[in-house]
Specification:
Number of domains: 4
Radius of gyration: 22 Å
Largest sheet: 7 strands, mixed
CATH class of the largest domain: Alpha Beta
CATH architecture of the largest domain: 3-Layer(aba) Sandwich
Helix content: 25-40%
Structural class: alpha/beta
Low-confidence stretches: none
Strand content: 15-25%
Number of helices: 14
Mean pLDDT: 96
Shape: globular
Distance between the termini: 45 Å
Oligomer: single chain
CATH superfamily of the largest domain: Alpha-D-Glucose-1,6-Bisphosphate, subunit A, domain 3
Length: 454
């Protein structure tokens, strides 16, 4: 039987339920196909803490070895630790993780040497085609000379590399609560934070891919409740939450309130521009706050607006030579980290910024949080195109209103903006809005939702 890959090969990665949608036999074919498409002599492979991850990553490695490729297995790691290995070793890489998805899921994030992304337009389509072909036959022809598997531990080198990019040597003592969500932050945080003047209060650091405490998805406010409560109880200076594969970080201030990822983007952008002499391009997606391009310009930089999604951010960073990029989903990208995203490096920037002055975090980030934002609001719709057309016709004729369709529909006035984007995988429309004050933002959200939901 040919494998049905239409449900598991996504725009940017492979992801599905194990073993219902894919298993180790398919993982082995993916390893062989990855070797073929990248034409690599060697690759690096890592995995998260999910119960299925060791078996799947091992099968992938066997598939690559059978095609004559030498594999370096780095074992348990965060996604950005795998990107570090791909960059430092200059090898294509494969990370086995389903990020924030529930326990029954697993997936593969693939990159070329130097952590360059592999997506539908950069190799994933060809990989899928090979796997489909081979699953119909006896599989790929083995190489005359198989490759080898070696094992390496990159955690300390990864930590040292990040620490060299942010000066955290002179920060004041801070108390920080970290919620790893039973994900890979529990593996990386102790080594990265080692020796810093921090009182670390760990939450859910035990690696457990069944996620017994809460989903490892800090984008959902319900998964931040435990951390917010603990920050208040401990009288901590801040809280940090990581998602399952620890490539995103979310920040809680000393009052237990979430800090907008747009505010973190603006804060880190200002710091990165200072590191680069007050010059440089900063990429931001179109649902980040107005604050982000304002702060970039105020600090001598050039903001560039792009579509939502890491492949678009990374492509623009490569095209423009940008020094930093940020998304409102709490992905943060750094030129000095091979244009890849690393929540850990963003967390170190927040610690350095807070520890380098005397005000609390809420006061520090206030200058980077200037407007009222709605966050992302999802609505189920039968016809995404028709809904967007209705919104376009409603707001198009208005004076002082501009419309653009870089990604979905964005409507902008001097006092507010909103964006409506269709989901690529579900019958959803995603609304984000921002205004100069809370009342105006609420009014715009109510207006647009009435059009979407009828």
């Amino acid at each position: 039987m040919a494998a049905d890959l239409s449900q598991i090969v996504k725009a940017y990665d492979v992801r599905g339920v194990v073993p219902d949608q894919w298993d180790e036999s398919l993982a082995e074919l993916f390893g062989a196909a990855f070797a073929e498409v990248t034409d690599a002599e060697a690759i690096v492979v890592g995995h998260d803490m999910r119960p299925s991850s060791p078996g799947l990553s091992g099968a992938f490695a066997r598939g690559a070895v059978a095609r004559g490729v030498h594999v370096t297995e780095i074992g348990l790691c965060s996604t950005d630790q795998l990107y570090y290995a791909s960059g430092a070793l200059d090898l294509p890489g494969a990370m086995f993780t389903a990020s924030h998805n529930p326990a029954q899921y697993n997936g593969i994030k693939l990159c070329r040497a130097g952590a360059a992304p592999v997506g539908q337009d950069t190799g994933l389509t060809q990989i899928r085609a090979l796997v489909e072909t081979w699953s119909e036959s006896t599989g790929p022809e083995p190489a005359a000379q198989p490759g080898t598997i070696t094992r390496a531990d990159t955690l300390k080198d990864y930590a040292a590399y990040l620490r060299a990019l942010v000066d955290v040597t002179s920060i004041r003592p801070l108390k920080v609560v970290v919620d790893a969500g039973n994900g890979m932050g529990g593996h990386t945080v102790p080594t990265v934070f080692e020796g810093l003047p921090l009182t670390l209060v760990p939450m859910y650091f035990e690696l457990d891919g069944t996620f017994p405490n809460h989903e490892a998805n800090p984008l959902d406010p319900a998964n931040l409740v435990d951390l917010q409560k603990r920050v208040r109880e401990e009288g901590a200076d801040l809280g940090i939450a990581f998602d399952g594969d620890a490539d995103r970080c979310f920040v809680i201030d000393e009052q237990g309130d979430p800090v907008s990822p747009s505010a973190i983007t603006a804060l880190v952008a200002a710091r990165e521009l200072a590191r680069h002499g007050g010059k440089g391009t900063v990429i931001h997606n179109l649902i980040t706050s107005w604050t982000v391009p304002e702060v970039v310009k105020e600090n001598g930089g050039s903001p560039v607006r792009t579509r939502v999604g890491h492949s678009f951010i990374k492509a623009e960073m490569a095209r423009t030579g940008a020094i930093f990029g940020g998304e409102h989903s709490a992905h943060y990208y750094f030129k000095d980290f091979w244009n890849a995203d690393t929540g850990m490096l963003a967390a170190l920037h927040v610690l350095a910024a807070l520890g380098g002055q005397d005000t609390p975090l809420s006061a520090l980030v206030a200058q980077y949080d200037r407007y009222a934002g709605s966050g992302e609001i999802n609505s189920t719709v039968d016809d995404q195109t028709a809904s967007i057309a209705t919104i376009r016709s409603t707001y198009g004729p208005r004076p002082d209103t501009t419309l653009d369709e870089l990604d979905g529909l964005t409507v902008t006035t001097p006092d507010w903006w909103f964006n409506v984007r269709p989901s690529n995988t579900e019958p959803l429309l995603r609304l984000n809005a921002e205004a100069r004050d809370e009342a105006t933002m609420r009014k715009i959200v109510d207006e647009v939702l009435a059009l979407i939901r009828g």
